[in-house]
Amino acid sequence: MRLHSSRSTDDRLLEAALELLGERGYEGATTRRIAERAGVAEVTLFRRFGSKARLLAEAVRRAGADFEEAAARPSGDLKADLHALAGRYLRQWRRAGTFPFVVAGAAAREPELRRALEEALAGRLATVRAFFEHYQRQGELRPAPAGSLIHAFFGPLVSAALFGAALEGAPALDVEAHVEGFLGGWAA
Amino acid sequence: MRLHSSRSTDDRLLEAALELLGERGYEGATTRRIAERAGVAEVTLFRRFGSKARLLAEAVRRAGADFEEAAARPSGDLKADLHALAGRYLRQWRRAGTFPFVVAGAAAREPELRRALEEALAGRLATVRAFFEHYQRQGELRPAPAGSLIHAFFGPLVSAALFGAALEGAPALDVEAHVEGFLGGWAA
DNA sequence: GATGAATGTAAGCGCATACTAACACCAGTA
DNA sequence: TACTGGTGTTAGTATGCGCTTACATTCATC
Question: Is position A2 within any domain?
């Protein structure tokens, strides 16, 4: 399969797979529905990706790469960077809906998915870690372990997105206040 | 169904459902497997709960109640309370594995599950909110919106648990440092 | 010892799933 | 013209799903 990559067919399948993963979960993203949404015959899906598992793993890898593009590159102005980061991050989670939870849940029992997820997360993590370490070297952040900074800054964004997606009256996160609180706790 | 509640049968079904939800996801938690693990005939499951959806919703409600028991009751010593809270919370998430993500993902397409999840979360949320508001009244925490405090404190715990469950080399969370950072940002 | 509630056993229904086989079409290239 | 690679169409397969029906068994209470 995937002899000469006919890009647009693969693209449409991957995109449809991504959408349906978020909307319907792993088992709900059936090969029929994916093919239908992509405007392609079901058999084409199998011809090009071999199996549902490989298609979905590939789709997750691609979603990870998209996420990566918006990653953290220090500009020199820590506070401005944090604001921009938080905004972009929240927007991505909001657009993703339940997708990350579906994938995290399914990854436990789908080895191909798990590998794709680990790759995607590891890439993101390295970028973010480098971001914080940069500002530690500049002396603007305390020399705490990068893990602490990462969780202190991204954790509240994650929980706001998670509870926002799952619960109607979830408590809101004020980005302004969050950045202030983070700097209060971790600025040098 | 559920005429005279024969507790142990229901209990075993609910427990098995909870385990399988975490291990196999919503669709992977089949009625046959749940019944087998509970040591009960499949038909008994339907006689007592009527449908798979109702059984799983009930199981989620129960998991929420268990979580609730360990909830926050202010002792007067803020720092000690935060430590205890963080420890208990992390332990619960760790034991839960991917269960919360499975539920969050499935809730989007299973209305009964969604209602159960919303109930469980709303209960938890109220307790936690009361905890922070107590210490605000004592003048030990800044008078920020409760949502900001909740996300600032629990967010890092959630992200640590999430990435810990999904990724081998996830960055660790130092609870000690986390509480320090939180107080640095939000203590009055 | 009869009653009735809770459970078990066995068989199966209708349906959707992931995936395959066989064959037809069509565009671009040699 | 002939070939070839990508796709579509149609019709499957085997499997597992949620759920039901009919009948048998256990066991405490009256």
Answer: no
